[in-house]
């Protein structure tokens, strides 16, 4: 079982939010679910870079943290749909604002990311 090396700093909102929404695909999952994309297969199609396993893990974490919930339909084949909880909906204006900031500053962000990817000369 995983054991944390450093305790979670619970006095700072930034540390708390990092623990709950930072993950490679969590913000994408929240965004797509907020847009009505609710089935796991649909989410996978919208985030093709992510494996189904990782998406399932992060959906479970978001569910455990009560940002999303799911409805399981008793049918064959099984059907699951995710939706945002009230607390999940409350973070969407911030997620949307971050996305807009990224769009507005995409040239700068692409340039600095590209610089990181260039190998230094030896």
TrEMBL record:
<dbReference type="Pfam" id="PF01638">
    <property type="entry name" value="HxlR"/>
</dbReference>
<keyword id="KW-0805">Transcription regulation</keyword>
<dbReference type="InterPro" id="IPR002577">
    <property type="entry name" value="HTH_HxlR"/>
</dbReference>
<dbReference type="GO" id="GO:0003677">
    <property type="term" value="F:DNA binding"/>
</dbReference>
<keyword id="KW-0238">DNA-binding</keyword>
<dbReference type="InterPro" id="IPR036388">
    <property type="entry name" value="WH-like_DNA-bd_sf"/>
</dbReference>
<keyword id="KW-0804">Transcription</keyword>
<dbReference type="InterPro" id="IPR036390">
    <property type="entry name" value="WH_DNA-bd_sf"/>
</dbReference>
<feature type="domain" description="HTH hxlR-type">
    <location>
        <begin position="12"/>
        <end position="110"/>
    </location>
</feature>
<protein>
    <submittedName>
        <fullName>Transcriptional regulator</fullName>
    </submittedName>
</protein>
């Amino acid at each position: 079982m995983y054991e944390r090396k450093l305790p979670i700093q619970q006095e700072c909102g930034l540390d708390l939010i990092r623990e709950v929404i930072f993950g490679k695909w969590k913000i994408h999952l929240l965004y797509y679910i907020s847009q009505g994309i609710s089935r796991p297969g649909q989410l996978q199609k919208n985030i093709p870079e992510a494996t189904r396993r990782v998406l399932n893990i992060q959906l479970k974490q978001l569910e455990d943290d009560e940002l999303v919930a799911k409805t399981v339909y008793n049918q064959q084949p099984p059907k699951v749909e995710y939706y945002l909880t009230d607390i999940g909906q409350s973070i969407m204006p911030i997620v949307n604002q971050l996305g807009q900031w990224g769009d507005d500053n995409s040239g700068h962000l692409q340039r600095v990311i590209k610089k990181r990817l260039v190998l230094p000369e030896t």
